[in-house]
Design a protein that fits this description.
The chain is mainly beta and 115 residues long. The protein is built from one helix and six strands. The structure holds zinc ion (ZN) (2 copies).
Length: 115
């Protein structure tokens, strides 16, 4: 049972705790990034998947040699999707979390990793 903190819903930029860094995993084909960690605000385990490169070059280019897109650099914007109820969340809000959002820096590709 995760230790969820039922904060009031509020859209806010959250501060990632340095002692609880997020992990960023690149999919084998380089088109998905999975960000995992604890929401800095409501403390629940979050898993966030972002597509990358899907809207890139036209599909026919992808077929050739299945070249993965260039590794993503910079930050991935993530928002809380804990799925728990938070008071004051507007019913029409598409958010399923506490309203926290934050940036997760993408680690440089591992040296020697398979292309
Ligand atoms: Zn929550
Ligand atoms: Zn949260």
């Amino acid at each position: 049972m995760p230790d969820h903190v039922a904060t009031e819903f509020r859209e806010h930029e959250a501060e990632v705790r340095p002692d609880e860094p997020f992990t960023v995993t690149r999919s084998e084909d380089g088109r998905w990034y999975t960000v995992k960690g604890y929401c800095p605000t409501c403390r629940v385990d979050t898993v966030f998947r972002v597509s990358y490169g899907v809207l890139g070059p036209p599909k026919r280019l992808w077929g050739r040699g299945r070249r993965a897109p260039e590794p993503l650099t910079g930050d991935i914007p993530v928002y809380c999707q804990c799925g728990y109820p938070h008071a004051e969340r507007p019913p029409e809000s598409p958010d399923t979390g506490c309203g926290a959002f934050w940036d997760v820096p993408v680690p440089p590709p591992e040296p020697g990793a398979a292309p």
